[in-house]
Amino acid sequence: MSREIDYGNLMHTAMRGLIRTVLQDIAENGLPGNHHFFITFDTAHPDVELADWLSDRYPGEMTVVMQHWFDNLTVDDEGFAVTLNFGDSPEPLYIPYDAIRTFVDPSVEFGLRFESAEEDSESYAADDDEEQDTARVPAEEKKNADIVSLDSFRK
Q1: For labelling, which of 33, 43, 97, 114 has a CA lying 20 to 30 Å from the CA of 22?
Q2: How many CB atoms sit inside 10 A of residue 80's CB?
């Protein structure tokens, strides 16, 4: 039996480490300049913690923005906790790094996208007759960001 190097998973680990490092710096020093983040995550991930009304409204994925107002940002080895404002209602969230699908900082045209084999076979999209309500990054913000996909490195 031959052993192979799993570059795809190694890259995912490194990219999640980059997110952890960035968020740790923000927790300690605040957001510099015009930096801000659009973070899309899997709301169905078993370790995600969010209010029931948010998980009901966004049953598959949700995009949050960390920019002008956020509070209580704490970062650990598995994920991060933050309080965000949803229509004048502060809500605490816990997002594990494994739940993150995209991490974008449009101020410097930087972005990461995480995809897995499971996501290719599973779909959180609603039936054709239903419309799913999900938070999205505005198109004008997306076009300015470079998204890195690792799918071409996988078998």
Answers
A1: 43
A2: 22
- At 115 the pLDDT is 77
Q: How far is CA 114 from the centre of its chain?
A: 9
Q: What is the pLDDT of residues 77-87, one digit of tens each?
A: 999 999 998 88
- Residues listed for the chain: 155
Residue corresponding to tokens 């999900």: 134
Residue type, 42: D
Q: Specify the amino acid at residue 82.
A: V
pLDDT in tens, 125-155: 333 333 333 333 444 444 444 455 555 544 4
Give residue 2's pLDDT band: very low, low, confident or very high (50, 70, 90): confident
CB-based contacts of 49: which residues, under 8 Å, 6+ apart? 81, 92, 93, 94
Q: Are 45 and 115 in contact (CB under 8 A)?
A: no
Question: H or E stretch including 110?
Answer: strand 110-113
Cα–Cα distance between 67 and 36 in angstroms, integer?
5
The model's pTM is 0.72
Q: Is the dihedral of CA 72, 74, 103, 151 positive or negative?
A: negative
Q: How far apart are CA 127 and CA 120, in angstroms?
A: 17
